């Protein structure tokens, strides 16, 4: 099945390379994107971004294609903040993905104190070791392992994949998810969700914010890392030192658009716009 979408508000490079997702590879004229046990080939042809997949409905939702990003970009521009205006204008095709929730919990635990190439490598090794081997028109790949597969693995599997001190966290969280599931997380408010996530071994405030935003699409979340601290001090003349208070400052400033604006600011700063 093929989906085509106006590329003005769907730039696949910006969407994939802004730090919200880790399972994708360059392929031909675009990328192959993996989520759970599914994959899609996404590329641009003229004024269209094209998605080829056996599960079009899944990837239509995954790429958030029923949301009006023109409205979001307009809201970002209305604040008249130089970095935000420039990033929202130049990166208006950046979309927030609707990713597999369990996969994102594990992925962002791996992401803490880590860089994107290493994160991708660790996840790929874990998938290769524990995930189901799949075939597609774009080559073979491994599905993201189920929580039961992760829980049943010896902690050394995670260590050997390069997870370092995070190995015990992955083991503990997967066992808890096997026991409890994550259904109870689904309908919580943003604050309730983050509070509950903090009870998982290895999830701190920044990872909880990332999971709330990138897994549960709580767009009134605003993860703060070193890049966002740089934004806060350099572009907002901030004085606060505590990351939780910086998060609160941004959420109070941008409300329901916080998550989208966080990505514009984060990506814009990394691109040195």
Write a compact overview of the structure shown.
The protein is of the alpha+beta class and 273 residues long. Helix content is 50%, strand content 12%.
Specify the biggest β-sheet.
Answer: 5 strands, antiparallel
Mean pLDDT: 95
Determine the number of helices (DSSP H or I, runs of at least 4 residues): 14
- Reading side by side through the largest sheet, how are the strands ordered? 1-5-4-3-2
- State the helicity in percent bands: 40-55%
Number of strands: 7
Q: List the secondary-structure elements in sequence, H or E.
A: EHEEEEHHHHHEEHHHHHHHH
* Uncertain segments: none
State Rg. Answer: 18 Å
Strand fraction equals 5-15%
The coarse silhouette is globular
Give me the secondary-structure category.
Answer: alpha+beta
Query: What is the terminal-to-terminal distance?
Result: 37 Å
Can you give keywords for this protein?
273 residues; alpha+beta; five-stranded antiparallel sheet; two-stranded antiparallel sheet; 14 helices; globular
